[in-house]
Write a structure and sequence with these properties.
Shape: elongated
CATH class of the largest domain: Alpha Beta
Structural class: alpha+beta
Strand content: 15-25%
Helix content: 25-40%
Number of strands: 5
CATH architecture of the largest domain: 2-Layer Sandwich
Number of domains: 3
Distance between the termini: 64 Å
Length: about 230
C-alpha cells in the first residue's frame, strides 16, 4: 500500500485512536501527515519542458549528457537536479539493456573445444557475433560472419530486433559465397541466436546449409572437411 493510501486512512477528527497512534500503526511520521505537497516551481517546469524536448531528440541521453547539452544551451544546472527531474518525468535512457553477453537461461553450457586448436587456413573455422550500432533514435543490431584465420568479414546483416532471422540470413549468404567451413563457432551469450537451444540450432543450420551438422558436444557446429 502506498504512503498516500495510508495517509487517507487516518481519521483527523472524532473519537478513537489519537493521530500519533494512527500514524504509528500505519508507519507514517506525523510530519509527513501534516505536510502539504508543493508543485514544481516555474523555473523547474520550464526546465522540465526543455528536458522533454531534448529527450525526444536524443533518447539515449542520460543525466550527464543532458547536463552537458543544457550547459551548451546556456542553462547552468547540476546533475543531481536533472537526475531528479528526469526521474520525476519518468524518462528512462535507451542503453544496452538486453545484455547480450548474458547467456540464455535455456541454453546449456558447453566446453570450449577451440582452445588448443591450431587454425592455420581459411574456412577451417568461422565465427559470428552480434553487437550494437547507435543511431539517432536508438540502436540497431549488427551480426557479422567472419573467417577466423583471415579475419575477413564474409557477410553481415542489420536488424532492429534481436531475433534469429537476420543471423541465419547472414550465415546463408556467407555459405552461398564461400561454401561451408569445417567448424562454425559462436559464443554462449544470449546473442548466439543460431543456438537458442540445441534442437533449434540444428534446425537453423540444416536450413542454412541443406544438411545436418555432425553431432558435437560444444557450442560449435562441425560440418566436416569433406562436406
Amino acid at each position: 500500500m502506498s504512503r498516500e493510501d495510508r495517509k487517507a486512512m487516518i481519521a483527523a477528527a472524532g473519537p478513537g485512536l489519537s493521530l500519533s497512534r494512527q500514524c504509528q500503526l500505519l508507519s507514517i511520521s506525523r510530519s509527513s501527515f501534516y505536510d502539504t505537497p508543493h508543485g514544481q516551481s516555474a523555473e523547474n517546469l520550464a526546465l522540465m519542458r526543455r528536458i522533454d524536448e531534448l529527450f525526444l531528440r536524443y533518447p539515449f541521453y542520460g543525466s550527464r549528457q543532458m547536463v552537458r547539452q543544457l550547459r551548451r544551451d546556456g542553462v547552468s544546472v547540476g546533475r543531481r537536479r536533472i537526475r531528479r527531474l528526469m526521474r520525476l518525468m519518468g524518462l528512462e535512457t535507451i542503453y544496452r539493456a538486453p545484455k547480450t553477453s548474458v547467456r540464455h537461461p535455456e541454453h546449456r553450457i558447453y566446453p570450449y573445444l577451440l582452445r588448443n586448436l591450431f587454425i592455420d587456413r581459411p574456412d577451417r573455422v568461422w565465427c559470428a557475433d552480434v553487437t550494437y550500432i547507435p543511431v539517432q533514435r536508438g540502436f540497431l543490431y549488427l551480426v557479422a560472419i567472419m573467417d577466423w584465420a583471415s579475419r575477413h568479414v564474409l557477410a553481415w546483416r542489420l536488424s532492429n530486433t534481436m531475433d534469429a532471422g537476420f543471423c541465419c540470413e547472414a550465415l546463408k549468404e556467407a555459405m552461398a559465397k564461400y561454401g561451408k567451413p569445417e567448424i562454425f563457432n559462436t559464443d554462449q551469450g544470449s546473442q548466439g541466436e543460431f543456438k537458442r537451444s540445441s534442437q533449434q540450432s540444428r534446425c537453423w543450420l540444416m536450413e542454412a546449409t541443406g544438411q545436418a551438422p555432425l553431432p558435437a558436444f560444444s557450442n560449435q557446429a562441425f560440418f566436416g572437411a569433406g562436406s
